[in-house]
Each structure stands twice: as structure tokens, then as C-alpha cells.
Amino acid sequence: MKERLLELQTEALAKVEEASTLKDLQDIRVAYLGKKGPITEVLRGMGKLSKEERPVIGELANKVREAIASELDNKKEHLEAIELEKKLEAETIDVTLPGRPVQVGGPHLLTSIVEEIEDLFIGMGFEVREGPEVETDYYNFEALNLPKDHPARDMQDSFYITEELLMRTHTSPVQARTMGEYQGSQPVKMICPGKVYRRDTDDATHSHQFTQVEGLYVDKDVRMSDLKGVLNRFAKQLFGEEREIRLRPSFFPFTEPSVEMDISCKVCHGHGCSVCKGTGWIEILGGGMVHPRVLEMAGYDSNEYSGFAFGMGPERIAMLKYGVDDIRHFYTNDVRFLTQYHKAK
Ligand code: DAH
Q: Where are the beta strands (DSSP E) in 2-152?
């Protein structure tokens, strides 16, 4: 029995030595130390032994058990350490690997231009206002001196929702709304950027939806020279100090007199070339002195107050400033187009 026990110990220890996984160790533990294992079997046969032999074999059996168990524990610790090491190695992060470039977005060219225009006018004391895109017939037309039978109200030109509601065709109704709010009680100096809608067929220079920036300054002694001064500063700041402006007589129902403003051509500086079609000038915006009837309708005494107004299209301005040749680029949102202007400001 003694030999059998020692044999079992040698055998088990050899197996422990060979074991390379935690699972192997568990199997050895079950096989040698388990209830159905050979040592238990030896102990069961102790009944046949003499009184003297029994404690000796009992003690030896315990020692063998302990020796195997302790070896199993040591090996287990060892294997666990190796496993941990392997895991740590596999999880090592190579901090020297270059990172993947992150695609950073940026403001849309139109957003940038509108913000640039806003900053410029805020610098001259204008506040920035908003108005609804679904507008009443009254504010879009009537309050701007466009009576019911005016050709600009033609169904061909406007997106009507009902007889009295339409998608605003310009940002000018915000003039009437702002003045109407104050009812002649105080001066107004505001700009209003926003979307406008027209029943146009889209092509390189037309879009059924585009943006405008409206401007309005009403006070006790506002003159045409103020309009010219403000527009001159605007043009030079946005397009470059070397650019000149000129005002041409024009017509809008809500201004009298009305003007259109041109800036000198960037390419030929007013001499005439193919970019400006030989004229030396490029049209930028419309404006004029607020029509007395528009002032009166909004509750302003036109003998006391006067004002100027203007309206411009940021798309056209961006096209001229950055040489964009098709208005549809602003709305088709090709990333190759958009990303060119992320730093343009
Ligand atoms: N509302 C005009 C348009 O859509 C632009 C405009 C012209 C606005 C003259 C004005 C103005 O305020 O005075 O074409």
C-alpha cells in the first residue's frame, strides 16, 4: 500500500509538471484527489490492515494528498501568472501608432457669408431680426405698398398656401413687421437674414428657395447719403477696400426713390471685361428710401420719420466673392464643394 501511495504521488506530480492549462490541473485534481480517485480507494482498503499499519498508512496517505494538492496550487498560481502576462501582452496599446484622421465638419458657405454680413452690420449698430417664412399676404405685399392687383403678386411667382397665406417671396415683410411692432414710437435699425421662396425653375442663377438679407434704418433724419455710406462700407469690407460702389435709379414699390447698387468689377476695376460683360460694374443689391406710404401703414409719421431699406441675396454675394458659377451648388451639398470653404471667412 505504501508503494502504491508513493507511486500515485510520483505519477500525479509528473502530470502536474506536464500540465499546461488550468483545465489540465482541474482534471488532475479530480482524478487523484476526488472521491472516486485512487487515493480514496487506498484509504477504503485500510480496513484490511493491521492496527499498527493503519496510522502509518493513514498519515502517508494524507501527506501524499497534501503534496499533490500543494503542487497543484503552485502550478495553478504559475499558470495563472503566465495567462495574465499573455493577456496583458495582447492588450498592449501601441501609443506610437498614428491616429486615424477625424473628418471635421465646418459651416456651410452660405452660413459663413450670412454670419459675415451679420457681423458687419452689427458693427454698424444694426440688430438682427427674424420673421416667419410662412407669411400673410398683408405683410408680404400690402404693407409694402404692393396692392392686390400688383403684377409681382402673380400666382406664377409665389407659392400660395391659401388666398391669404404664402411662402414669403422676400425678407422685406420683416421691415413692416418690425415697424408695425413699434408703431412709430422709436427708431428702427435692423437686418433680417432668412429663407425666401419663389416659383422659379431652378437653373445656374435661379432657385425656388434661396436666402436674402433685408436691411432697414428708420429715424428722424435718415437720408440717401446714409444709405450710400452704409452700403459703401459694406461693399468694401466684404469685397475689399479697393472696390467702388455706384447707385443706379431703379424701382421697387416699397422705396422711393429706389436704387440698385453695383460694385466695380474685381477683374477690370471698372474698365470693362468679360466678367462684367464690358460694363465695369456688377449688380449686388436693391434698396432705396422707405416709401412714405410704407412708413404710414406701420404707424410712423412720414413727416417726422424717414428711412432707408435694402435687400440682398447672400448666394449672389458668395458667388461673386468666391467665383461660384452655379447657385445649385449651395443646395446639392456635394462635400467636395462644401469643404473648399470651411476656412473661407
Ligand atoms: N425685396 C426685394 C426683392 O426681393 C429686395 C429689396 C429691394 C429689398 C429694395 C428692399 C429694398 O428692402 O429697399 O427683390
A: 127-128, 134-136
**Any atom of ligand 1 within 6 Å of the Cβ of 173:** no
Instruction: Establish whether residue 140 lines the binding site of ligand 1, counting it when its CB lies within 6 angstroms of any ligand atom.
Output: no
Q: Is the peptide bond before 55 cis (omega within 30 degrees of 0)?
A: no
Cα–Cα distance, 87 to 24 (Å, whole number): 19
Contacts of 93 (CB under 8 A, 6+ apart): none
pTM: 0.73
The DSSP 8-state label assigned to residue 137 in this structure reads: H
Ligand 1 and 310: CB distance under 6 A: yes
Domain range annotation of the chain: 2-90, 109-341
Ligand 1 mean position to 69 CA, how many Å? 95
Distance CA 110, CA 316 (A): 10
Q: Which of 178-192, 274-288, 303-317 has the lowest mean pLDDT?
A: 274-288
Q: Alpha-carbon distance 37 to 34, whole Å?
A: 5
Compute the distance between CA of residue 235 and CA of residue 214 in angstroms, rounded to an integer.
15
CA distance 238 to 134: 30
Pick the most confident of 1-5, 58-62, 204-208, 304-308.
304-308
Ligand 1 center to 253 CA (angstroms): 9
| Residue nearest atom 5 in ligand 1 by C-alpha distance | 311
CATH architecture, domain defined by 109-341:
2-Layer Sandwich (3.30)
